[in-house]
Amino acid sequence: MSQSYGSSQYTPQQTFMNNADLITLTKMVQLPQETKCVTIVKTIKIKPTKYGWYYMTCFKCPKQCFGAAPPFICGDGHETEAEILRYKLDVEVGDGDVKATFVFWDRECEQLIGKSATV
């Protein structure tokens, strides 16, 4: 019998899932601090916000930009000429009687749907 040594055959996501604790949504919403864990929930709905499913971001920092035309200005006062769009989805989830809102940011949304918010 031989044993193989070498690099892991797991993706980073698989490694995370293998090492994370599985907890209920009830326990998750009661956690006193940020924790890496896994929960299984039912997606109830995508919650619309007054800003929609994306936001315009700064070229120099991750803050949201505002303005109807360039230059767009972010919260730190940086000017951005180009429209740089990023996903932000608020998803209502549930487990029995417990509900919570999970926020899916740009990277997670791109991984799920395979497309960038900037067309």
If you had to describe this structure to a student in words, what would you say it looks like?
This protein is α+β, with helices and mostly antiparallel strands and 119 residues long. The protein has two domains: 8-40, no CATH class; 41-119, OB fold (Dihydrolipoamide Acetyltransferase, E2P). Helices cover 18% and strands 34% of the residues. The protein is built from three helices and nine strands, in the order αβαββββββββα. The chain has helices at 12-19, 25-29, 106-113, and strands at 21-22, 37-38, 42-47, 54-57, 65-66, 72-74, 79-80, 84-95, 98-105. The strands form three sheets. Strands 3, 4, 8 and 9 form a four-stranded antiparallel β-sheet that branches. A three-stranded antiparallel β-sheet has the order 5-6-7, with no helix packed on it. A hairpin with a 2-residue loop joins strand 8 and strand 9. This is Replication factor A C-terminal domain-containing protein. It comes from Trifolium pratense (Red clover). InterPro entries: NA-bd_OB-fold.
Architecture blueprint of SSEs:
Layout: H1 12-19, E1 21-22, H2 25-29, E2 37-38, E3 42-47, E4 54-57, E5 65-66, E6 72-74, E7 79-80, E8 84-95, E9 98-105, H3 106-113
Parallel strand pairs: 1-2
Antiparallel strand pairs: 3-8, 4-8, 5-6, 6-7, 8-9
